[in-house]
């Protein structure tokens, strides 16, 4: 395909899009690194597999950062190479990211109202299993981990263990005093904090994508316009040259060959 010739205005638009996508790539990289750091430093061990909402915020940052990096890379390459294919892929990723972020934000809003009831039932079930099973069971390991990690005891207090004495994981370090806060309150705070991150990041990034794609979209429209106009001009030029050549041969040929030229493709 013949390379499109840009006017100074289109060149300005082209490099503006490149800078925009480069900034997007850098922001995506920062988001990705922050998500990785939050995921590693904020790991909740075995709790991660049982309550995904506790670490869902870090996972969302990792996913968003990765897709924005990929989107920025496609946009930069598409702008510099003037590649329609890469630019269409860029917009496909913009649409995908927008849909993913809005869905994540709305899911976080919907789940935030249910987390209180869900967490209470979940912890109540774990405490009942703790009372009825032997040590080193999965439920006892999970509750011991939660109580040590968050400095809490039982669902609402140590009284949830009934006549059985509270486990050692309920006691303050180097003391016989038990933690005063229940694990339900602490875990609900942790989950809602992460859900707030999901909601804020999801909806904010989605709105940013919606309002900042005007420049790339304008650039793609300009490219398509130039492509179509260039191809149409090329077609007209080719068609005119062919007709001119035919007219020359038709006029210079003997009269008995005119009929042959008329039927010749």
TrEMBL record:
Chain ranges passing through the membrane: 12-38, 58-80, 87-110
Keywords tagged on the record: Membrane, Transmembrane, Transmembrane helix
SUPFAM superfamilies in alphabetical order: Tetraspanin
GO cellular component: membrane
Compartments where found: Membrane
UniProt cross-references to PROSITE patterns, sorted A to Z: TM4_1 (PS00421)
Listed InterPro entries: Tetraspanin/Peripherin (IPR018499), Tetraspanin_CS (IPR018503), Tetraspanin_EC2_sf (IPR008952)
Membrane topology type: Multi-pass membrane protein
Main location (coarse class): membrane
Family: Belongs to the tetraspanin (TM4SF) family.
Protein name: Leukocyte surface antigen CD53 isoform 7
Lineage: Eukaryota, Metazoa, Spiralia, Lophotrochozoa, Platyhelminthes
